[in-house]
Amino acid sequence: MTRFLLFLLFLILLRFILSRIFGAPRVIRSGWRSTYRRGPTRTIEGKTFKDPQCGIYVAQNLAVPLRHKGETLYFCSDQCKEAFSRSEKN
Q1: Which residues contact 88 (CB under 8 A, 6 or more apart)?
Q2: Is 31 helix (H, G, I), strand (E, B) or coil?
Q3: Measured between alpha carbons, how far is 89 from 20 in angstroms, rounded to an integer?
Q4: CATH number of the domain located at residue range(s) 42-90 in this protein
Q5: pLDDT by residue, tens only, the chain of 90 residues
Q6: Positions of CATH 2.30.170 in the chain
Q7: Does the pTM of the predicted model rise above 0.90?
Q8: How far, in Å, CA of 13 to CA of 68, rounded?
Q9: What is the torsional sign of CA 56, 61, 65, 69?
Q10: How far apart are CA 79 and CA 61, in angstroms?
């Protein structure tokens, strides 16, 4: 049992050291899914708008825009934009 615990501790330390050396990927959340990317992330700037499909607030520079009936709507992701477009067609 002690060998097993020492082995687990070794794996945890090895993962920590390797992530420090090679850099851990950042998690970027966008709508309903998460993606892993390395490097700098985009920052929130300017106004925020409420997504008409799912109701979360999204910054204008990170949003997916759609012109609808003469106004611009902002969505958190392409999935929300497509779901809104499908619901409007029905």
Answers
A1: 68
A2: coil
A3: 50
A4: 2.30.170
A5: 899 999 999 999 988 887 777 765 555 555 555 555 555 556 667 788 999 999 999 888 889 999 999 999 999 999 999 999 898 877
A6: 42-90
A7: no
A8: 53
A9: positive
A10: 17
Which pLDDT value is given to residue 21?
Answer: 74
Given this model, what pLDDT does residue 84 score?
92
> Do residues 17 and 9 touch, judged by C-beta distance below 8 A?
no
Residue 47: burial class (beta carbons within 10 Å; 0-12, 13-18, 19+): exposed
Whether residue 38 contacts residue 25, with contact meaning beta carbons closer than 8 Å, is answered with yes
Residue 30 burial by CB count (10 A; 0-12/13-18/19+): exposed, middle or buried?
A: middle
